[in-house]
Amino acid sequence: MPRIIIILLFFSFYLPANSLPKNKIISQLELTNNLSFNFKQTINDKSEDGRCVIEYPKKIFCEYNNANKKILVSNGSSLVIETNNKGSYYRYPLDKTPLEFLLDKKYLISKIERLEPKDIDNKYLNFKIFENNNEINIFFDKKDLNLIGWQTEDIYQNLSITFISSVKKNQEINSKIFKLPENN
Q1: Looking at 65-69, 79-83, 141-145, which range is the least confident one?
Q2: What is residue 6's predicted lDDT score, i.e. its pLDDT?
Q3: Are 144 and 27 within 8 A, CB to CB?
Q4: Nearest CA to 124 among 154, 153, 161?
Q5: Can you give the pLDDT at residue 1?
Q6: If pLDDT is split at 50, 70 and 90, which confidence band does 15 have?
Q7: Where do the DSSP E strands lie in the chain?
Q8: Type and span of the H or E element at 112
Q9: Cβ atoms of 70 and 64 closer than 8 Å
Q10: CA gap 74, 93 in Å, rounded
Q11: pTM of this structure
Q12: What is the spatial distance between Cα 164 and Cα 38, in angstroms, rounded to a whole number?
């Protein structure tokens, strides 16, 4: 019995201090099928806000609270940004954007498993991911370990910072919201 206690003590000192929060973050992600949230996004000192729904894997629908009534939507392979001028939109291959990684739960989990979080101001845990010339910073609240935002560069090399709030997990959602506009 004393031998087992010594072995357990040895391993408790050996394991990194941040492994417990990291494991809880991974567990929460594994149990999450979708997220609904409010967001505030800042790109080059210009801020916009709105509401989003993410459905794993790789689907997102965001409505912006602006005069253009901008909508961002991904069906898992393409990303479309549409303004109030119905029929006026930009389409991008999802795999050419950082959202390719942020919307892929399995990818995030595999990366987080290999990284140690950085403690920021004793409030946030940050995981920094490098992939295909993209630097992606993902932030979790240190208290409840919920996702609170991310920082990336957009396809035009603009710094994009997104904070999320009022997060709801595994809500019933209408999958039709991820339908892309038809080509004219």
Answers
A1: 65-69
A2: 45
A3: no
A4: 161
A5: 52
A6: very low
A7: 34-43, 46-55, 59-64, 71-75, 78-82, 89-93, 118-120, 124-131, 134-141, 147-153, 159-169
A8: helix 105-114
A9: yes
A10: 9
A11: 0.83
A12: 6
Whether residue 83 contacts residue 94, with contact meaning beta carbons closer than 8 Å, is answered with no
Residue appearing with tokens 């029929």: 87
**Angle (CA) 42 51 66, round 5°:** 60
Cα-atom radius of gyration of the chain, to the nearest Å?
19
Residue 16 has pLDDT above 70, yes or no: no
Rounded to whole angstroms, the Cα distance separating 24 from 21 reads: 5
State whether residue 12 is helix, strand or coil.
helix
Cis before residue 93, ω within 30 degrees of 0?
A: no
101-146 tens-digit pLDDT = 999 999 999 999 999 999 999 999 999 999 887 889 999 999 999 9
What is the structure's pLDDT at 84?
73
Please, what is the end-to-end C-alpha distance for the chain in angstroms? 74
